[in-house]
């Protein structure tokens, strides 16, 4: 199978000549990322590229990709998915128009892999006024805004809007808002070309990925997080929308792996099917008692778990196959099969995604090492619980489904002062009104109802950009709020 994929890669080199790639390697993992919709895979060589430990030449993942499926109000099926990105593709780089047509520009826009560290951001914040300082490319070229003349959304990637004017200005000390100590931001879509992977009709969605890592002395040092925001740029409502996470996990040598499911821990995982990993190609192998790897659903309890191997169900072929995998209405191998080249898959519960709305999904890729393969697999459950607790407690990190906040006609007249602030500010407006503050990821962080006149507020939140919403029975107004 690996030789076939490498051969197909050579045949398709011209198709992916404009790929943008970059390594996220802020902790004990070196993960190759790409703007073609397939992650942790070296497409040019047909090799795995989720290296653990870093600099060992041993890898735990051959490829990771996301699947998207929806049904319209009329029951029409829409599908976009990737597996390896060599025999076909559905996902393309960059942003698409936000006018309801969801069209891809002739030349992709905001189509790079933007990698930045918190250390670089802090250095930028301190030194941006120094005469010989040169900001990193990821800060200078951060895809904060779309080109509105092309019909793209005005705001794309999150940034610290320190002066509250709605414009990303790194020359004035503004910077990307990231999670973790090291992060990569990638914008993709499903309208940039034909769907040759699934043959399905496109949804008209824009996907924003933030992969991020923490430097730590514990399990976090071996973990990669993924935040995914899916924006429906089309004019079609989807009463059923599903996101799936597909992973071909290779614990060194691909042919002797086993996989499992732990629903109580929102976890699918893979481990070596025998006691020794022999390695493959240029990889030396893990030797005795190799590690195990898993995917954890963080802000949702997965509704579908599926395990397959090359002798089992294999990968879906038709759009209906993909939909059945996403919704759990198909079949897959989840028994005590012999070790083989395993696949893991999980899908989130179906939700509605109407025109202009956003859905967020978060994941963690974890591993365990220190015992036998079975002991390592069992240890993943405790790590999954720890990482879920860590994620839930981390400030400004939780991301649920949310609807973008529209402005109604005849907005409320109000004053917000000071802005920026240290979290202490006042709002003054006429009449009765409700007040809410949302984080940039859509999380509600503060609300106060039945206000009149001047309302003083003290927010205890992380530094960053928020959205203040004032609303009465007939009107609504939004305003950016900057906490320094």
Largest β sheet strand count, sense and barrel closure: 10 strands, antiparallel
Mean pLDDT: 87
Q: How far is the first residue's CA from the last residue's CA?
A: 53 Å
User: How many helical elements?
Assistant: 5
How many domain modules? 2
Helix percent reads 10-25%
The count of strands amounts to: 28
Explain the overall architecture.
With about 475 residues, the chain is mostly beta strands. It folds into 2 domains: about 1-395, no CATH class; about 415-484, Immunoglobulin-like (Sandwich), CATH 2.60.40. About 10% of the residues lie in helices and about 35% in strands. It is built from 5 helices and 28 strands. The strands form 5 sheets. Strands 1, 2, 3, 6, 7, 8, 14, 20, 21 and 22 form a 10-stranded antiparallel beta sheet that branches.
Brief sketch in words of this structure:
The protein has 5 helices and 28 strands. With 484 residues, the protein is mainly β.
List the helices and strands and how they pair.
Elements: H1 2-11, E1 21-24, E2 30-34, E3 38-39, E4 41-42, E5 47-48, E6 50-51, E7 59-71, E8 77-81, E9 92-93, E10 114-117, H2 118-127, H3 137-140, E11 182-189, E12 205-213, E13 224-232, E14 238-249, E15 257-262, E16 267-272, E17 276-277, E18 287-288, E19 292-297, E20 304-309, H4 319-327, E21 342-347, E22 351-353, E23 358-368, H5 373-393, E24 414-417, E25 424-439, E26 444-458, E27 464-471, E28 476-483
Antiparallel strand pairs: 1-2, 2-6, 3-7, 4-5, 6-7, 7-8, 7-14, 9-11, 10-11, 11-12, 12-13, 13-23, 14-21, 14-22, 15-16, 16-19, 17-18, 19-23, 20-21, 24-25, 25-26, 25-27, 27-28
């Amino acid at each position: 199978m690996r030789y076939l994929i490498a051969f197909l890669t050579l045949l398709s080199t011209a198709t992916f000549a404009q790929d943008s790639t970059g390594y996220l390697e802020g902790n004990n993992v070196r993960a190759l990322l790409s703007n073609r919709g397939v992650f942790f895979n070296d497409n040019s060589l047909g090799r795995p590229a989720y290296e653990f430990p870093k600099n060992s030449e041993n890898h735990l993942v051959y490829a990771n990709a996301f699947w998207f499926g929806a049904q319209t109000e009329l029951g029409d099926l829409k599908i976009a998915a990737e597996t390896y990105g060599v025999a076909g593709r559905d996902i393309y780089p960059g942003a698409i128009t936000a006018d309801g047509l969801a069209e891809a520009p002739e030349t992709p826009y905001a189509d790079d892999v933007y990698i930045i560290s918190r250390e670089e951001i802090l250095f930028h914040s301190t030194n941006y006024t120094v005469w010989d300082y040169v900001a990193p490319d990821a800060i200078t070229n951060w895809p904060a805004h779309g080109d509105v003349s092309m019909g793209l959304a005005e705001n794309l990637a999150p940034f610290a809007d320190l002066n509250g004017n709605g414009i990303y200005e790194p020359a004035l000390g503004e910077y990307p808002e990231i999670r973790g100590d090291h992060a990569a931001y990638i914008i993709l879509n499903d309208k940039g070309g034909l769907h040759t992977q699934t043959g399905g009709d496109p949804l008209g969605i824009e996907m924003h990925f933030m992969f991020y890592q923490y430097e730590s002395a514990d399990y976090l040092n071996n973990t990669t997080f993924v935040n995914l925001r899916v924006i429906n740029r089309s004019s079609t409502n989807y009463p059923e929308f599903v996101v799936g996470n597909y992973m071909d996990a290779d614990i060194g040598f691909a042919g002797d792996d086993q996989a499992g499911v732990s629903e109580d821990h929102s976890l699918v995982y893979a481990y070596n099917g025998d006691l020794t990993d022999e390695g493959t190609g240029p990889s030396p192998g893990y030797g005795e008692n190799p590690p195990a790897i898993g995917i954890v659903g963080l802000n949702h309890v997965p509704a579908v778990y599926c395990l397959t191997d090359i002798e089992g169900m294999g990968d879906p072929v038709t759009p209906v196959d993909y939909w059945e995998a996403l919704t759990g209405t198909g079949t897959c191998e989840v028994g005590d099969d012999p070790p083989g080249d395993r696949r893991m898959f999980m899908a989130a519960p179906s939700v509605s995604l109407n025109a202009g709305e956003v859905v967020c999904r978060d994941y963690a890729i974890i591993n365990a090492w220190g015992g036998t393969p079975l002991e390592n697999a069992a240890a993943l459950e405790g790590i999954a619980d720890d990482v879920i607790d860590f994620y839930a407690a981390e400030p400004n990190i939780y991301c649920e489904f949310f609807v973008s906040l529209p402005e109604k006609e005849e907005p409320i007249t109000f004053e917000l002062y000071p802005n920026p602030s240290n979290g202490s500010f006042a709002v003054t407006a006429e009449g009765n009104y409700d007040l809410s503050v949302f984080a940039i990821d859509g999380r509600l962080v503060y609300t106060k109802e039945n206000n009149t006149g001047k309302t003083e507020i003290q927010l205890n939140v992380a530094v960053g950009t928020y959205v203040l919403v004032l609303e009465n029975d007939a009107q609504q107004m939004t305003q950016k709020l900057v906490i320094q």
